[in-house]
Hints:
Elements (H helix, E strand, L loop, with lengths): L2 H25 L7 E5 L2 E4 H17 L4 E4 L10 E9 L1 H6 L5 E8 L2 E9 L4 E6 L3 E4 L2 E2 L12 E4 L9 H11 L5 E3 L4 H9 L5 E4 L4 H13 L2 E4 L7 H4 L2 E5 H11 L4
Parallel strand pairs: 3-4, 10-11, 10-12
Antiparallel strand pairs: 1-2, 4-5, 5-6, 6-7, 7-8, 8-9, 12-14, 13-14
Helix pairs in contact: 1-2, 5-6
Amino acid sequence: xxxxxxxxxxxxxxxxxxxxxxxxxxxxxxxxxxxxxxxxxxxxxxxxxxxxxxxxxxxxxxxxxxxxxxxxxxxxxxxxxxxxxxxxxxxxxxxxxxxxxxxxxxxxxxxxxxxxxxxxxxxxxxxxxxxxxxxxxxxxxxxxxxxxxxxxxxxxxxxxxxxxxxxxxxxxxxxxxxxxxxxxxxxxxxxxxxxxxxxxxxxxxxxxxxxxxxxxxxxxxxxxxxxxxxxxxxxxxxxxxxxxxxxxxxxxxxxxxxxxxxx
Length: 263
């Protein structure tokens, strides 16, 4: 971890906490929110937008030459450094009063993701990682679970909704996996699911066609916590397709085989 990595990490944590304060104020006054529908089951409110504007202002004011990829505001020209941001991962949970949502910030430098921050303001938890520097929760080191048997493993996933074309494929995944594991959780915030695998709370996670702002920070944190990260298609990459398959190394092959119907 370089001195620049530490400065970027501290900046990202401060931005995430500031955005978290904004979201928490909206959380306690949800009746005032105006909600728009992007597509069936996909919502946005002024809370999402206010959070992203806060993040964009803080990050790009401090690093004016950097690029930007966020969920709610236009992307900027790609430079050697790019922030990849989800201002409110778990919007549906947020709007329905389910206290499971987070802010996700990643930094990509010369095509490599070097930094990940996932901040859960309601639970007071901030997951961080820098390339080569390990993964942490509120400053304490974290690592993936030591589960080795698929029968003892608890997994997370996201279930497709609306008109998504991969609903049937995901239903087949669940049918393949469930007879072999201890359970599957669908909690509605992919960034937190990835952080929970990194912290050993879940033994693995998979989902198809996520957006890069959903997973960019989580992938850094996962790898620094010791997880294997791939895609359902061995020839694919999560950073390209958004399809993620992750678990500790000792569990990964049996998890992947079960999902692929090879168990």
